[in-house]
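Hi P.,

Sorry for the delay on this. The queue was packed all week, but I finally got your sequence through. Input first:
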Amino acid sequence: MLNTAIENLHTEGRYRTFIDIERKRGQFPHAVWTRPDGAETPVTVWCGNDYLGMGQHPVVLAAMHEAIDATGAGSGGTRNISGTTVYHKRLEAELADLHGKDAALLFTSAYIANDATLSTLPKLFPGLIIYSDSLNHASMIEGVRRNGGAKRIFRHNDVAHLRELMAADDPAAPKLIAFESVYSMDGDFGPIKEICDAADEFGALTYLDEVHAVGMYGPRGGGIAERDGLMGRVDIINGTLAKAYGVMGGYIAASPKMCDAIRSYAPGFIFTTSLPPAVAAGAAASVRHLKTDQKLRDDHQTQAKILKLRLKGLGLPIIDHGSHIVPLIVGDPKHTKKLSDMLLSEFGIYVQPINFPTVPRGTERLRFTPSPVHGPREIDALVGALDGLWSHCALNRAELTG
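Then the structure:
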């Protein structure tokens, strides 16, 4: 049965291969790829989530070195049993301040933060109905699925459909709307204000995943809700420390009572060893730094705009919703894998194919994540390689506007 399951992925062109790369401090997005035969080849990473290059920032590295020299490697336990340190508390304070909330709660990843929080909320609000956007991340879907409560799925970004669903339910039932600010596969934005308006009308709580926006949007990196002046209208904000902040971990920011209740009832928090102090220290330094580094955010947006303009100029079918994410639609899993393989082996460009079930069948893609450290040389190399391969593979050139 295992052989059949794996073989099915190969047949459909959806089998995922680990690419063995080694990042070099101070040289990102350049790295070294160890080929299957053991040979080492320089590559440029175009699909990483270290959106701003903070994983190599001197401020972050210095904080991590200081913490590991002071405390050692691990935290030594769960947050309840010896695993809460001054570094964890400092990080939570930074995150609460970032989102204009009175508290924050740290998890080992944003996936765990979403899963643990959304699966725990029905215990705290008996009879809770969760309304979830149809394109929410797998971690949100899993949390909603596991909570044992009622759920409703509304069409992606369709606030009218959301209102219809809420209007059809018991007005007295507690309600929560779960959605995202930036959806990572298409790079489109969630209608935060309109959803908050609907939440006010129906007395619902709001749960916003800002994973692909924190650090990169808003005057202090608080995300799309901060950019649009809406943080105060969102009850629970989820974010990550592993993307723009370049380290590891996830969190929620909310009221002190909400954070207290989640930490007291969520198994995913209670029974998990806390992040190493050095990781917490590095993340706190990164959050603190990005509250004031607007130039890095501006450079990031500029590089994304340049890449999209260059690809559009070639007639390549990208989706452009105005975010920093650049999806290039191929539309076939085998072609997507072939393009990825050829970019890596022939041009030293690493971009991972995105296939079903991450995206719907027929929308398979290469997803590029330009950063401030992807300069003109890297963009020229990528655009030239894609232009040549697109012609070589006889793929259609037709711009998608989203």
